[in-house]
Amino acid sequence: MTKQTAGIHHITAFVRNPQQTVDFYAGVLGLRLIKQTINFDAPEVYHLYLGNELGSPGTIITFFPWAHSRKGRIGGGQVGYTTYVVPGGTLDFWAERLAKFQIPFTETVRFGETYLQFEDKDGLQLEIVAREEGPQSQWTFGGVPADKAIKGFGGAILYSTAPNQTGHLLEHVMGLTKVGQEGAYARYRATGDLGNVIDLNVTPMGYGIGGAGTVHHIAWRAIDDADHALWRSHVEQNGFHPTPIVDRQYFNAIYFREEGGILFEIATDPPGFARDEEPEHLGEQLMLPSWFEPKRDEIVQNLEPFEVRVLKEDQ
Predict the structure, then answer these.
(1) Could you tell me how many helices (H) and strands (E) the chain has, helices first?
(2) What is the distance between the alpha carbons of residues 260 and 211, in angstroms, rounded to a whole number?
(3) Alpha-carbon distance 305 to 69, whole Å?
(4) Any idea what the Cα angle at residue 14 is, between residues 128 and 251, rounded to 5°?
(5) What PROSITE patterns does the record point to (predicted)?
(6) Is 131 exposed, middle or buried (0-12, 13-18, 19+ CB in 10 A)?
């Protein structure tokens, strides 16, 4: 069986504080909070989703904010950098914006592209690159106009403890194409126009430690439920051990850990985030799956309130 994913569906990370996280990703980076719900496996913790105007696959970063989370250490078996892509010619705007918010950044070049690399408040490693490909975001917030807004993911840098095996998986199981190697990284490309460029370390790295400021998992796209079932069989036939299909309300998911230690998910594009909220009101209230509704009052009491707000630097 030959399969090819279009690229990244979403990336999920650990953080400590919901207000701080929303201020950074909505207030500074201009993303839209498209869903506030809970971690279905730990309902005392939010699950926050931010992306473009509709939370399209390839744009969604999600967070588990837990105040008591230990500080993580980024290393092997994790996403090292989450890459955001902005329209061509807008990198100067983003450099000026980071400086306005006093966010330190460095400029680096990889595979002929210039990246701005920086960290969020928990130490999650991020970078911004400008490319022409991929649809423009229609969302504007604070000081970020739509024509300069983040389109979604450019891709990611993966940190592997066994890069040869991870590279083989990317190419021969996930269906990415190896397009080159430069210095410390090999580059792979998926078929989509967002979340499609993956750089992988070529030298094995020591294991990181999960916790605040680290990525929990990276999720790849499946077209629909039928395609998802084929992906599960495909992954299993290639010697991995995927979980049963899990209903995540806004997509279905399977999970497996690859040989370099990175937790992979494969998630369906549908049904999407408008299944329980109107598109113009996404993210405005806490949404719970039906089995948690009877405990809504108890759940809300255990969650720290937050708001999406324009920050003082943009007022």
Answers:
(1) 5, 16
(2) 19
(3) 18
(4) 85
(5) VOC (PS51819)
(6) middle
Question: Domain 8-314 belongs to what topology?
Answer: 2,3-Dihydroxybiphenyl 1,2-Dioxygenase; domain 1 (3.10.180)
148: left (phi over 0), alpha (psi -120 to 50) or beta: alpha
- Express each pLDDT in 193-243 by its tens digit: 999 999 999 999 999 999 999 999 999 999 999 999 999 999 999 999 999
**Coil vs helix vs strand at 2:** coil
Nearest CA to 15 among 155, 206, 214? 214
Q: What count of other Cβ atoms lies within 10 Å of the Cβ of residue 30?
A: 24
Q: Which two tokens stand for residue 139?
A: 């969302």
CA angle, residues 32, 24, 195, in degrees to nearest 5: 55
Query: For 134-137, which contacts have Cβ atoms below 8 Å and span 24 or more sequence positions?
Result: 134/58, 134/85, 134/193, 134/194, 135/193, 135/194, 136/87, 137/52, 137/53, 137/59
pLDDT at 1: 74
Please tell me the pTM assigned to this model. Answer: 0.97
Instruction: For 132-189, write each residue's pLDDT tens digit.
Output: 999 999 999 999 999 999 999 999 999 999 999 999 999 999 999 999 999 999 999 9
